[in-house]
Design brief:
The protein is α/β, with parallel strands linked by helices. It is built from nine helices and 16 strands. It folds into three domains: 1-81 and 142-177 and 319-353, ATPase, nucleotide binding domain (Nucleotidyltransferase, domain 5, 2-Layer Sandwich), CATH 3.30.420; 85-135, Dna Ligase, domain 1 (2-Layer Sandwich); 178-314, ATPase, nucleotide binding domain (Nucleotidyltransferase, domain 5, 2-Layer Sandwich), CATH 3.30.420. The protein is 38% helix and 30% strand. A hairpin with a 4-residue loop joins strand 11 and strand 12 (194-200). The longest helix is centred in the last third of the chain and has 29 residues, at 248-276. It is globular, with a radius of gyration of 21 Å. Bound molecules: adenosine-5'-triphosphate and magnesium ion. Adenosine-5'-triphosphate is lined by residues 15-18, 190-193, 213-215, 218, 233, 236-237, 291-293, 295-296, 338.
């Protein structure tokens, strides 16, 4: 570019409970955090992954970008949940032209929606003389249009729509630079969706999104103890003032019910993965956990115990330069789990610049 700096592209994560934005600068191996924002969404604006209140979400995007000084006009965003289908399929060996021509036909049987309802993307993951391994990703067009509309209403331009679980993987790859044989499970627990991605080196072996997350803990406290949403959220987070007059012995079993459910879903995913993959010698070394839901007190320890595997918090800024004078290290480490997907999206933005 002749005049001025090339405009950066921000990562914008529109979750079901909050909007996160991250702007990075520099090259892939020397990145600096320049802006970061986090703003809660009004309750019920995003339900089941669907934005119900476009204007409210657009307004929150504007607020989060203004408050954090994100000026980038272009953003990368992500989708997750049941509108997104990801499958690893193995096809006979074929040329790229043959694959391009036949991909719809091959993908059709793996996608539970009519092909006219989805946008389909694919990526060759492995190839030899006998077979072509392909990862297919499909997302319902109405879901894509929904998120695009909200972002455009806010005045930003969505240039790439990624999948949250791959943004998370990108965040992991850049920050951890894994050996090709290292197998870990990336686990992002949001408010309503939990993303599991089993990765070997830089390759995703298996992904699954489940409709379970931090809001289950809030719901159960609301329903069983008659709390309001705000009260249940505060009690769940252990906010001291909220704990006055609260019978902790009534809370504990409710919370551990949900924790158990979360652990069971992850266990089922591991079992399913083992049953459907022919790489049964692959052992998952650890779980790298992220998402606000992973901050639930005792959850990490409980998962490690139940699944018999170490659980570590994923650090999305591990390889990113962060000026402690600009970003308070205590605040950053507190919101680190929530920022993982947004950092992954921002990394895609650096590539797309
Ligand atoms: N300290 C805490 N203790 C327990 N739960 C917490 C804490 N902080 C945040 N949470 C929970 O984390 C969840 C929000 O996490 P996150 O921001 O990752 O979700 P999201 O991206 O908005 O949602 P999703 O990805 O499911 O659409 C909420 O359920 C919130 O109550
Ligand atoms: Mg999220």
């Amino acid at each position: 570019m002749l005049f001025g700096k090339k405009k950066s592209v921000a990562g914008l994560d529109v979750g079901s409970s909050s909007v996160k934005v991250v702007e990075l600068d520099g090259k892939m191996n020397n990145l600096t955090l320049i802006n970061l924002g986090f703003e809660n969404l009004p309750d019920e604006t995003v339900v089941d992954g669907q934005i119900m209140e476009l204007n409210a979400v657009a307004e929150t995007i504007q607020i989060v970008c203004n408050d954090s000084s994100v000026k980038a006009p272009k953003v990368v965003t992500g989708v997750s949940g049941h509108s997104v289908i990801i499958k690893n399929i193995v096809l006979p060996a074929m040329s790229r032209e043959e694959l391009e021509e036949s991909i719809d036909w091959h993908a059709e049987e793996h996608i539970p929606y009519d092909l006219s309802e989805v946008s389909l993307d694919y990526h060759v993951t492995d190839e030899d003389v006998d077979a072509t391994s392909v990862m297919i990703a499909a997302c319902k067009k109405e879901r894509l249009n929904n998120i695009k509309q909200a972002i455009q209403l806010s005045g930003k331009q969505p240039i790439v729509i990624d999948v949250d679980t791959f943004a998370l993987q990108n965040c992991y790859e850049v920050n951890y630079q894994p050996d090709p044989d290292t197998v870990v499970t990336l686990l992002n627990i949001g408010a309503s969706t939990m993303n599991v991605n089993i990765v070997k080196g830089n390759q995703s072996l298996f992904t699954r999104d489940m409709t379970i997350g931090g809001s289950q803990f809030t719901d159960i406290l609301q329903k069983n103890l008659g709390f309001s949403y705000q009260q249940a959220e505060a009690v769940k987070r252990g906010v001291p003032e909220a704990m006055d007059n609260v019978d902790e012995t009534a809370i504990e079993p409710l919370i551990s019910n949900v924790t158990e459910m979360v652990a069971m879903e992850i266990q089922k995913t591991f079992d399913f993965y083992r049953a459907t993959s022919d790489n049964d010698d692959i052992k998952v070394e650890k779980i790298l956990i992220s998402g606000g839901g992973s901050k639930m007190a005792g959850l990490r320890e409980e998962l490690a115990k139940k699944l018999e595997i170490p659980v570590e918090v994923l650090d999305p800024f591990r390889q990113i330069n962060v000026d402690p004078k600009k970003f308070d290290p205590d605040y950053l480490s507190e919101i680190m789990p929530e920022m993982a997907v947004a950092v992954g999206l921002a990394l895609r933005g650096v590539e797309a610049k």
